[in-house]
Amino acid sequence: MCGGSEDVWQDKYSLPRQTTMFIFKKILVFILTLESRLILAKYKPYIIAITGSVGKTSAKDAIYCVVRRQYKYPRKSEKSLNSEIGLPLTIIGVPNAWHSPFGWFSNIARGLDLIIFRREYPDCLVLEIGADHPGDISKTVRWLKPDCAVLTRISRTPVHVEFFASPEQVFQEKSFLARAVKPGGKAVLYADDERLIALGRELKDRNISVVTFGTSQISDVRGGYFSPVYTDGILSGMTFKLEMDGSSISISLPKVVGLSHSYSLLAAAAVGKAGTIPLETIIPGLSEYVPPRGRMNIIAGQNETVLIDDTYNSSPDAVESALETLISLETSGIKVALLGDMMELGSYASEQHRIVGVLAAKIVSRLVTVGPRSRITAGEAKKSGLSSDMVHSCDSASEAAQYIIQFLKPGDIVLIKGSQSTRMEVAVKALMREPDRAPELLVRQEREWLMKN
């Protein structure tokens, strides 16, 4: 599964050491998974499990804000720990010990303590579950049976498709989570995808309650009237309307922009509806939502500019959504896109980078790219009408930032996005008005990540 910050397991040691670490990790996963199974069997928490291609972490955080008003002691996956090792860590309630053997032994001991003794344990778990290889979810649901499964948007060309036979296989892998819901359980599905609507019909036939969310008219929880917000002429957030059970509520989200955040709150409201949480309880919960870092966050840039930090990861659908967000934004300056490579697309990589180039040429005044794959994006943008002197390609995020600094003027908006390995947060830090706030505002600021620079 996709491991977020757990990727530091890779590429750090010599081949013999990597082999040893691989074996150690496999043993560790086996032990922690076994402990997790025993803990769940003993304490029987209500399990809400979330998957999808776009917006899993944001949805997880928003859902937690709602359910903690109903449950006494809920727990959620921290950051994006959604892998074969991250999932047991959440269930046991211990941190990632990274490369510390003592830390891992301590985590195992904590699991044993929960199994042997009766301790206080969460009555609700909100778990994010990723899938970057075939079998990741189908294997997990052999032992993890959700009471409520949430499926967010599943891209037509999703990240990690490189490891699957086709995009449809990715969809099928993620749909295993919904099919694993306990009898009489709940499924919350993204309604703007006909594939998920069809899945919902299948689930209803199996006595699983289905609640949908999205922007389509058939959504049980619907969003609309999306609008950016400006403070003194500067982009500062967004608003939208949430419609549910005959009510229409205005929702404000400061310091972020883009439909992805509204979908996360719609998903959270749908989980509340599925769990019969009253609307007057759901809305205050949504107001406590704090968007995760690196997901369309608005950050003050140098020279009175605005940065839109979308650097957590990248995929074709996510880039398209981010670029289309720029269309609705008003500014006295120009719109700039700084785009890094989209990884793990396999045979779809060239085509998808070309598509991004065509779209970018229609929306931005200047395009800067990072990485060899994104040179295809740059070339296609030129073919599509963006002037050659308005397109520039770089080898690294830091190089790109230094290039952009030369032409930034007050009022400019810079969208920054790329896959994890492109480390586009380095560019955000270089362009921020207050770079000393990077540990507070940016992704991948842990020591283990910074050591990889």
TrEMBL record:
Gene3D superfamilies in UniProt: Mur ligase, C-terminal domain, Mur-like, catalytic domain
GO molecular function, one term: acid-amino acid ligase activity
UniProt KW Ligase keyword: yes
Residue ranges of domain Mur ligase central in the record: 120-271
Boundaries of every Mur ligase C-terminal domain copy: 294-419
Domain of life: Bacteria
Keyword line: ATP-binding, Ligase, Nucleotide-binding
Transcription regulation in keyword set: no
PANTHER family given in the database record: UDP-N-ACETYLMURAMOYL-TRIPEPTIDE--D-ALANYL-D-ALANINE LIGASE
Protein name: UDP-N-acetylmuramoyl-tripeptide--D-alanyl-D-alanine ligase
Annotated organism of origin: Candidatus Taylorbacteria bacterium RIFCSPHIGHO2_02_FULL_44_12
